[in-house]
Design a protein that fits this description.
Keywords: Membrane, Transmembrane, Transmembrane helix. The chain is mainly α and 72 residues long. It has one domain. The protein contains two helices and no strands. Helix 1 runs antiparallel to helix 2. It starts with 8 loop residues before the first helix and ends with a helix. The relative contact order is 0.16. The mean pLDDT is 87.
């Protein structure tokens, strides 16, 4: 499997949106909801963690959708 998969701008935008939303939910569940450096740090830590773990699944979903569109 030496096939290269290009990363598009849409893939990165979806990854950023999902990661920030998930990071906010993780921070909201672990730290009290108030505008503080601790809460902002928790959001960014959660977002980076999700971006790391969700990059491959998001690319896989995009490839699946592209293949599905080509079959139609």
């Amino acid at each position: 499997m030496t096939e290269e998969v290009p990363v598009t701008r849409t893939d990165l935008l979806v990854l950023v949106a999902v990661s920030l939303g998930g990071g906010f939910l993780i921070a909201w569940g672990t730290v009290s909801l108030e505008l503080s450096p601790r809460f902002v740090n928790a959001v960014f830590v959660g977002a980076v963690m999700l971006a790391f773990f969700l990059f491959i699944p998001i690319m896989g979903v995009r490839l699946f959708i592209d293949d599905w569109k080509q079959d139609d």
